[in-house]
From TrEMBL:
Catalytic activity from the UniProt record: Endohydrolysis of (1->4)-beta-D-xylosidic linkages in xylans
Protein family membership: Belongs to the glycosyl hydrolase 10 (cellulase F) family.
Listed SUPFAM superfamilies: (Trans)glycosidases (SSF51445)
The protein's name: Beta-xylanase
SMART domains in the record: Glyco_10
Biased composition (Low complexity): 25-39
Span of domain GH10: 48-366
Biological process per Gene Ontology, one example term: xylan catabolic process
InterPro entries for the chain: GH, GH10, GH10_dom
Region (Disordered): 25-48
Enzyme class: hydrolase
PROSITE patterns found in the cross-reference section: GH10_2, PROKAR_LIPOPROTEIN
């Protein structure tokens, strides 16, 4: 039942009127492994401060997921990204199918280009993600392996990837989306089927062995609601801590919607409950979908702005929340178009021409609030 994100939302409305992004907005095909060089912090500082300036002043991270194709081919994308953010997450370049497309054949070029870009621009890169049910290469997804073989494959992968980026990536989403939305139990995956529930403990231990300095996170969506999902994630984390598994934090993805969003008291309460477990909380993938809105666009964008601003304020209120990453930053490139097929959605904080949306201004206000 759980597989796709926003399953409940998608059931209500799946927009598939257009076949994809307008041609002029398609990310170019990936070829080069170099990235557009953007002069960091172009001399616009007489003007309003960027999100990055405000976040630096508060000693927090404000970031965006990076579309490598856009980074390599769209100069404006690269410039706005490095001006506005001090943290970055690779949208796809560090997933299993990207890093080990054939058995034993590791391909780090794209992920290395991402990490180099981050360091050249003084940004903190996040490793995303070591263990997930999705983005697996066909040889793994369709193969038939014994428990020992799967454990070997997973340990080898985690060890090689975390070691490759040791000293360069200090925060990892180790396990991603392992809890079922409806039941709160562990959800189906090749890892659960082939290894059993302790694959999660193993993954954290192997990541810790490979880089004891790294901050290790469990990352999931839907934990901002009062739900079986929250309860399931909470008890998973509680169990990990009780067993002495090396986990430092929980990523709350925060894929949200202008039409359905949780009561803010619930969001804060859930954050506080995670914090009370002794975990850090990072907002890891925030976007706010608009395409099922029942009201006019200016009103929708105002609601969207309120949601973004409120979540940023919530994070600032909880001491252990020190990183807010959006799942993209411009409506020109978003997984909501490419993966969720909601072609007219405008989920991010810059419009498709890189103009600030009301959400951007709301985040600025939140970051300026003492
Ligand atoms: C998505 C990417 O944005 C897409 O480009 C890709 O095709 C599929 O994955 N939760 C996560 C992210 O943890 O890794 C997902 O990213 C979005 C949902």
């Amino acid at each position: 039942m759980r597989r796709q994100l926003f399953s409940c939302i998608l059931l209500i409305c799946i927009l598939s009127a257009c076949s994809g992004l307008p041609t002029g907005q398609q990310p170019a095909t990936p070829q080069a492994t170099t990235v557009q060089k953007a002069p960091h912090a172009t001399p616009t500082h007489k003007g309003p401060k960027t999100l990055r300036d405000l976040a630096d002043a508060r000693h927090i991270h404000i970031g965006a997921a990076v579309n490598l194709d856009a980074l390599q081919h769209d100069h404006d994308y690269s410039r706005v990204l490095s001006d506005e953010f001090n943290a970055v997450t690779p949208e796809t370049a560090m997933k299993f199918d990207a890093l080990q497309p054939q058995p034993g054949d590791y391909t780090f070029q794209q992920a290395d280009a991402f990490v180099n870009y981050a360091h050249q621009h003084g940004m903190v890169p996040r490793g995303h993600t070591l263990v997930w049910y999705s983005a697996l290469p066909p040889w793994l997804q369709n193969g038939s392996y014994s428990r020992d073989q799967l454990m070997y494959i997973l340990k080898d992968y985690i060890t090689k990837v975390v070691t490759h980026y040791k000293g360069q990536i200090n925060v990892w989403d180790v396990v991603n989306e392992a809890v079922d939305d409806d039941t709160g139990q562990l959800s189906d995956s090749i890892w659960l089927r082939g290894i059993g529930p302790d694959y999660i403990d193993m993954a954290f231990r192997w990541a810790h062995e490979a880089n004891p300095q790294a901050q290790l996170f469990y990352n999931d969506y839907g934990t901002e609601w009062s739900s079986k999902k929250f309860d399931g994630v909470y008890s998973l984390l509680q169990g990990l801590i009780q067993r002495g598994v090396p986990i430092n934090g929980v990523g709350m993805q925060m894929h949200m919607h202008t039409q359905f969003y949780p009561d803010n008291a619930t969001v804060l309460q859930n954050m506080q409950r995670f914090a009370d477990l002794g975990l850090k909380i990072d907002i890891t993938e925030m976007d706010v979908l608009t395409s099922e809105t029942k009201v006019d666009m200016p009103t929708t964008l105002k609601i969207q702005a309120d949601i973004y601003g409120t979540v940023v304020k919530d994070c600032l209120q909880i001491k252990v929340c020190q990183s807010i990453v959006f799942w993209g930053f411009t409506d020109r490139y978003t997984w909501v178009h490419s993966d969720l097929h909601r072609d007219s959605d405008q989920p991010l904080i810059f419009d498709k021409d890189y103009r600030h949306k009301p959400a951007y201004d709301a985040i600025v206000q939140a970051l300026k609030t003492p």
